[in-house]
Amino acid sequence: MMPLLVSGPIKLLVKIGKKIKEEADKEYFDISAIQQKLIQLQMLYELDELSEDAYKEKEEELLLRYEVAKQRELDQWEELASEDEEDKG
Question: Which residue, 28, 25, 23, is CA-closest to 61?
Answer without folding.
Answer: 28
